[in-house]
Design a protein that fits this description.
Elements lengths: L3 E5 L4 H12 L3 E6 L2 H13 L3 E6 L5 H15 L4 E4 L14 H22 L8 E6 L2 H5 L5 H20 L5 E9 L6 H13 L13 H13 L9 E5 L2 E5 L11 H13 L2
Parallel strand pairs: 1-2, 1-4, 2-3, 4-5, 5-6, 6-7
Antiparallel strand pairs: 7-8
């Protein structure tokens, strides 16, 4: 029986590419987004290629809407095997200028939306196992100036992954995250701005911002889901073009038995760099 994959934020960009590739790989794909016309376009692409798909318009920041969406998917297909939370938005601003609305709107989609989707999907996944994939970012891994809301949301995603990978291991549910680097509608304005900024200084664009395509992320997702390894969970994968990076969970790098000794060693280390 074909596996069922629910993908949020699948009407464009990375989510769209993942939906199309999974459709080509034999999954029954549920395309979620907030614009029905764009959702319909993705569904049509999958159907025309001989795949199985249907669309559901819902805002993942609305818990009631997520509940209804999941109930609808289960009523149609009987279960959910794969959940990919890709929905995202940006409201960039320096912290002192950021409004409460800027803060909450980003966390509501990226972080709260992830929880709502996982929480509603789990009862329909725990009996047979499955995969949960969340999208994080280097902003969540290392921080990003002017994106304190986005960085916080994506860092929170890591906590979800590490916690649930352990919590759901017995149910054979794998939980992983991808930090994608790809040219999409959301990233293009940022990258174009940076290109202009560095060009005006006669500087090359940093390697971090030389990104691949959304299809590169989709191909990695297909391969990741195909891996027959129940222990492949709790991982953070960076994907940029054909380059794949595995990030480590943070570990202690300095520990001393007294406050004085700690700061002495800390300053020594900083001075030696």
């Amino acid at each position: 029986m074909k596996k069922v994959a629910l993908i949020t934020g699948a009407s464009r960009g990375i989510g769209r590419s993942i939906a199309v590739h999974l459709g080509q790989s034999g999954y029954q794909v549920v395309v979620n987004g907030t614009k029905q016309a764009l959702i319909n376009e993705v569904v049509d692409v999958i159907l025309q290629a001989g795949g199985t798909a249907f669309g559901y318009c819902a805002n993942v920041a609305d818990p009631a809407a997520v509940t209804t969406m999941v109930d609808t998917v289960v009523a149609k297909y009987g279960c959910i095997d794969v959940l990919i939370h890709n929905a995202g938005n940006l409201h960039d601003q320096t912290c002192s200028r950021m409004t409460d609305e800027d803060w909450y709107s980003v966390l509501d989609v990226h972080l709260n939306g992830a929880f709502y989707c996982i929480n509603r999907v789990l009862p329909h996944m725990q009996n047979h196992g499955g995969d949960i994939l969340l999208m994080t970012s280097t902003a969540g891994l290392t921080g990003s100036i002017g994106q304190v809301n986005y960085s916080a949301a994506k860092a929170g995603t890591l906590g979800i992954v590490w916690t649930l990978a352990a919590e759901l291991k017995r149910e054979r549910i794998r939980v992983n995250a991808i930090s994608p680097a790809a040219l999409t509608d959301m990233t293009r304005p940022v990258i174009e701005h940076l290109k202009g900024k560095h060009a005006s200084r006669n500087e090359p664009l940093p390697e971090l911002w030389r990104v691949g395509e959304a299809d590169d992320i989709a191909r990695f997702v297909v391969e990741l889901l195909a891996q027959q390894d129940d222990n492949l969970s709790g991982e953070i994968f960076g994907v940029n073009g054909s380059k794949v990076t595995k990030w480590q969970k943070p570990e202690p790098v300095l520990s001393e038995n007294s406050i004085e000794a700690f700061f002495k060693v800390l300053h020594h280390q900083k001075g030696s760099k």
